[in-house]
Amino acid sequence: MTKDIFGNALLDYQNGNYSEDIITWTNISDKDELPLPYLFRPYSEMPKLEQKALQLCKGKILDVGCGAGNHSLWLESKGFDVKGIDSSQGAIDVCKRRGLKNAEYKALLEETDTFDTILLLMNGTGIFQEMKQVTKYLKHLKRLLKSKGQILIDSSDISYMYEDEDGGTWLDLNSDYYGELDYFFSYKGEEEAPMKWLYLDFETLKTACQTIGLNCEKVMDGEHFDYLARITNS
Ligand SMILES: C[S@@+](CC[C@H](N)C(=O)[O-])C[C@H]1O[C@@H](n2cnc3c(N)ncnc32)[C@H](O)[C@@H]1O
């Protein structure tokens, strides 16, 4: 059970009580700040890759792990039928306070409706948590997809994180997939229970899609080893 520290931070920001940022770190990286204003970014401040994903949206849309609802709210303002889901109660409370009409406290695997577009943004593959769960999540997403539907998802190839200054690499080829990270975060001195967070390189995502009859194409590369992919029924 999480303490919903992420949700509490979003609620603080929404309620005008912004005093500090979330601190994150992983098993392979040092502490870093995740600025709360970034989690409330307007369209103009979104990475190009997210703007592109929003431009490609069509029909009835599901925003998975919607957070504070930035993508959903923009889509709603353009007249789309959009539903945001998040496994953080605080995040969903914030979405509602910001005016999102359809926001539900729910984990992806609990969703049963079908959609023309399913969005998973800000390292969307993170929600799969670990390599061994990728097929289960992709099969579930496939069930939620209308026949001509699309999944728009972003992630990064983080092999660069294993390089040292001389360009050498310390990737351990005997260990699990290099994009599987233990992710930690704290806010106002309180630490969340550690969670798994998965970064998938494009080729690995594509192969996983193909094995269950999904087509996966790269839409664009981002600025730092990240990419946006579009997954459809093949
Ligand atoms: C990195 S944040 C991204 C938030 C938002 N999409 C954005 O771009 O600002 C990931 C979000 O996914 C949510 N999440 C994690 N696992 C989830 C799951 N299994 N089902 C639904 N939401 C989940 C978290 O609570 C968090 O709000």
Automatic annotation (TrEMBL):
Coiled-coil regions listed in the entry: none
A single GO BP: methylation
EC numbers on record: 2.1.1.-
Keyword Lyase listed: no
Domain of life: Bacteria
Molecular function terms from GO: methyltransferase activity
Family annotation (InterPro entries): Methyltransf_25 (IPR041698), SAM-dependent_MTases_sf (IPR029063)
Alphabetically ordered keywords of this record: Methyltransferase, Transferase
Domain Methyltransferase intervals: 61-149
UniProt protein name: Class I SAM-dependent methyltransferase
The species this protein was found in: Winogradskyella aquimaris
